[in-house]
Amino acid sequence: MNRQKIAEIPFIYDAIQFFFGKPIIDERLKTFIERSSLNSTSYVLDLGGGTGLNRHLIHQTNRYICLDLDLEKISTSLKRQEHNSSIMADACQIPLKNSSVDLVMLTAVTHHIPDTAIPALFSEILRVLTPDGQFLLFDPIVDSRNPLGRFFLKYDLGAFPRTVSDMDDFLLKHFTPIFHTTFRILHSYLLFVGTARKGSEE
Ligand SMILES: C[S@@+](CC[C@H](N)C(=O)[O-])C[C@H]1O[C@@H](n2cnc3c(N)ncnc32)[C@H](O)[C@@H]1O
Q: Which residue, by CA, sits nearest to atom 23 of ligand 1?
């Protein structure tokens, strides 16, 4: 079995997330989710949601949808908690209606997405977000001041790590930032929360 196959076994995958500081990261994500205007009728879409590790961060609504390409991870996500809808699909072709999602989460996913697919990904996020909906992105970034992070990114399954400046190129084009910060655990990370720029389209 190769490195990729081993790392994709759901319980090994979850253990890797904890090694890289998932509990600390969760505290940061929770702060923003609690400040958002989600209520019991809101829909949350966890794009590339993997095994549904973010599900426990959402208390305001049971309308949590985990979307991922990986069937095994989706199955783990479905077992993880009640009130969890999961869809096996491509984040660049979201099978949901226009303006139907109040919060789109994209955590640790963009470094798996090639540059050629980024426009389709963001066009889909903008299409499904409600006009007042929020977008939350969290991703490891290439940071020249963090050699350990660069070492881990070299062996990461995501083949498209980017600098903050690369990420800002597409984030600020489409979203008005509410929050934008970088921080370091083992990796360096970007955490971004924003709303769609009026008239933003690919
Ligand atoms: C590092 S994992 C992050 C999982 C989860 N978001 C988290 O924070 O724990 C990246 C996930 O993105 C998924 N993924 C990558 N490309 C995708 C695509 N085009 N559409 C849907 N999911 C995708 C992978 O299957 C994997 O589960």
A: 48
* Cα of 125 from ligand 1 centre, angstroms: 15
Q: Answer yes or no: CATH 3.40.50.150 is held by domain 3-196.
A: yes
Determine the distance separating the centroid of ligand 1 and the alpha carbon of 45, expressed in angstroms.
13
Indicate yes or no: pTM above 0.85. Answer: yes
**Greatest Cα-to-Cα distance within the chain, rounded to the nearest angstrom:** 48
Task: Calculate mean pLDDT across residues 35-60.
Answer: 95
Instruction: Say how far apart CA 160 and CA 142 lie, in whole Å.
Output: 10
Region 155-165 average pLDDT: 87
Residue nearest to atom 27 of ligand 1 (CA): 50
Ligand 1 centroid vs 49 CA: distance in angstroms?
6
Tokens 């190129």, residue located: 169
Buried b / exposed e over 75-85, threshold 16 CB at 10 Å, is ebbeebeeebe
Span 135-144, average pLDDT:
94
Distance CA 28, CA 20 (A): 14
| Cα–Cα distance measured from residue 11 to residue 51, given in angstroms and rounded to the nearest whole number | 9
Q: Per-residue pLDDT for 82 more than 90? A: no
Per the prediction, the chain carries an average pLDDT of 90
Contact 121, 172 (CB under 8 A): no
The ranges assigned to domains in the chain are 3-196
